[in-house]
Amino acid sequence: MNAPTRRRAGLRLPAPVSKAASTVRHASSGAWSEVLGSPRTLKWGMNIWPPFLGAGVVVEHIDPEWRSVRVRLRRSPLNANYVGTQFGGSLFSMADPWFMLLVLRGLGPGYVVWDQAGEIEFVSPGRRAIHATFSVSQEQLEQLRAQAEGGEKVLRWFETELTAPDGTVVARYRKRIYVRRKRASQG
User: Fold this and answer.
1) Which listed CATH number (3.90.550.10, 2.30.38.10, 3.40.50.1100, 3.10.129.10) goes with 17-186?
2) Where do the domains of the chain lie?
3) Which of 44, 46, 69, 172 is deepest in the core (most CB within 10 A)?
């Protein structure tokens, strides 16, 4: 079946999709299901995704059970700030998608999962490559399921540290994730 279209200046364009509708569908249909289908394909896709590629972000490992992700930010002149350290926007970028994706995949298709807020605290200058591991435990997923069981929204903070190769903490990153069970009308 053809997707709905609209006409504009003689061109047939796809009909606009609301952000809410695309969020509900993104993990279970279309191109996103191909990219999110396995940790291996997601790793490959994220490593060629222009925002990560341009910033020097490299996805090193995604756990086969979707419980953790290890990411590295290369140091280069393209992601250095005015004083020669890692650009803060690149540090935030390397951390941004992971907790949401791990929770989304960990909970499965019966839940709506959104990024709700993100914070970064810069602790020390990043003069070399930066590493970060993002983890969501089975226990955390079970707690989210229990809290969202009645259809209420659940807001949960997840945290990690971005470190230099010698273990020096460069930044602390926090992400608040919104979780709710899907309504029957959302499939």
Assistant:
1) 3.10.129.10
2) 17-186
3) 69
Please name the helix (run of DSSP H) or strand (run of DSSP E) that holds residue 163, with its range, or none: strand 154-163
Beta-strand relationship, 111-122 and 5-8: unpaired
Q: Is the pLDDT of residue 33 over 50?
A: yes
Q: Among 136, 127, 59, which residue's Cα sits nearest to residue 105?
A: 136
**Long-range contacts of the stretch 90-94 (C-beta < 8 A, 24+):** 90/55, 90/56, 90/57, 91/120, 91/122, 91/126, 91/130, 91/162, 91/170, 91/171, 91/173, 92/118, 92/120, 92/173, 93/51, 93/52, 93/55, 93/57, 94/52, 94/55, 94/57, 94/130, 94/132, 94/162
pLDDT at 183: 82
* Cα dihedral 119→141→106→182 (10° resolution): -90
What percent of the chain has a predicted confidence (pLDDT) above 90?
A: 72
DSSP symbol at 136: -
- How far is Cα 124 from Cα 171, in angstroms, rounded to an integer? 7
Residue 80, exposed/middle/buried by CB under 10 A (0-12, 13-18, 19+)?
middle
